Amino acid sequence: MTDCPTQITFDFLPRKAVVADFDGGLISSDAGLLPIRQLDRRLGWSAAVAEILDDPRQAGKDEHVLPAVVRQRLFALIAGYADANDHTRLRHDAILQTVAAEEAKPLGSQPTLSRFENAVTARQVAQINRLLVKMFIQRMGHRKPQRLVL
User: Which of 45, 126, 131, 144 is the most buried (most CB within 10 A)?
Assistant: First the structure.
């Protein structure tokens, strides 16, 4: 018989305990985002992407910081929510709030996410692509893969 843990603890939020509990309480189909967020924190990918992007919003008028908006959109895509219109509902999702922001408050709305996506330039997309290649090479070190599937 397989021995399964009853709880898994994540440490990607330094000031808040994040624990996945399997006792059948509040249930979410998106809890798989928790270990992905843990990996993202270790690799620093979403933070590096946020540094590439410009934030054209007026300082003081932006309710959502750019790294949280990047993580909100990234993790929603990973969870299979392809359209920004999904964020009208997802902005109140506890799992997405946990992986995207450091505080439990509504995330960016559909218009916020749409403006974010439309503000990204072709030059920034190229920079993100170069970042992905650079991070891949760093992770591989001197190991040469026998096969690479894209």
Answer: 45
The overall pTM is greater than 0.85: no
| CA 75/CA 87 separation, integer angstroms | 11
Residue whose C-alpha is closest to residue 110's, from 136, 87, 83: 87
Give the CB-side neighbour count of residue 83, counting CA atoms within 13 A.
Answer: 4
Helices H / strands E in the chain, number of each:
7, 2
Q: CA-based Rg of the chain, rounded to a whole angstrom?
A: 17
Are 124 and 52 in contact by the 8 Å Cβ rule? The answer is yes
Q: d(Cα 120, Cα 55) in Å, to the nearest integer?
A: 9
Of the given ranges (49-53, 92-96, 100-104), which has the lowest mean pLDDT? 100-104
> Other C-beta atoms within 10 Å of 98: how many?
23
Q: Per the structure block, which two tokens stand in for 90?
A: 């997802």
